[in-house]
UniProtKB/TrEMBL annotation:
Position of the signal peptide: none
Name of the protein in its database record: LacI family transcriptional regulator
Record-annotated HTH lacI-type domain positions: 4-58
Keywords from the named record: DNA-binding, Transcription, Transcription regulation
Organism whose genome encodes this protein: Anaerosalibacter bizertensis
Alphabetized GO MF terms: DNA-binding transcription factor activity; transcription cis-regulatory region binding
Top-level lineage group: Bacteria
Amino acid sequence: MADLSIKDIAEIAGVGVSTVSRVLNDHPDVGAKTREKVLEIIEEYNYIPNNSARNLKRSSTNNIGVLVKGIHNPFFSQMIKAVEEEINKKDYSMILHYNEKNSNDIEVAIELIKEKRLKGLICLGGDFDDLENNQLLNLKTPIVLTSINITEEVNKDVFSSVIIENEIAAFEAVDYLCKLGHEKIGLISTGEGDKNVGRLRQEGYKKALKANGIEYNEELISFAHYTFKSGYESMSRLLDKGLGITAVFVTSDIMAIGASKAILSRGLRIPEDISIVGFDGIEYSEYFHPSITTVKQPIEEMGRKSAEILFHLIEDKKEQQHIVFKTELLKRESCKKLK
């Protein structure tokens, strides 16, 4: 359906244009039933109730949105650079938006698509399990979800994705520690409450322990967010328990660097006293001392593939694609074999 004007909304609702305007501006002198009716119609027809968006409707844009969950993780910085290079090659413009506070990532995506009249959207991180939201689908904007776990229940015909096998990668990392002789292996993770990659990486940790005959112990788990500080604090809580941990698996490199700082600040040594493995393969992990063993994701390749898929959807109207990249365990200086 063609974009509607405020007059069209008024006609559909059976009210005057001034009434619709008062609803949009949240004036108190509109009856509750009338207000509710107008708002329902606005939502149903994806009306964009602001001047900047109405101006954008008059002309086609070449805007590609990149929606990033959070602002702290340097993992996404490399990926954004690769995406931007591909967008520039196609003479499109990149609209970069960070979602730090709003927990409803789909709501933010809908608003960004409408406000900027996006030709397509790449989402880096976030929770999109409710992707079949009608308001989002009605926009008919191609979407690529990158580094995002989507449950099997979601219809994969409505989006494309670029991911890794998070559970398998985490399993391999923890299995490596087990094979080095470690049994008291801590975990610093965003937790099972994280519907995205954190849950899968924690599941990989559990399965690796089980495969090596090691009992899962919740006391060895500490939760954190994707920041250096949170990793530091989480590791400090583990050390305070005095459980004799000899190794720790951390589900992101920035948290692993924070955790390493906490270990060293206690006068402990890495890897002589505690071995540590991170996840992502960001550059910081290589130049920390000692360099941190980590699961490397092909970050730039994932970014380029995300843009490539999006342009296939926009320009060639191709079918949705779901790409799974392999990871690599980079064995560095932070792990020690126990005697």
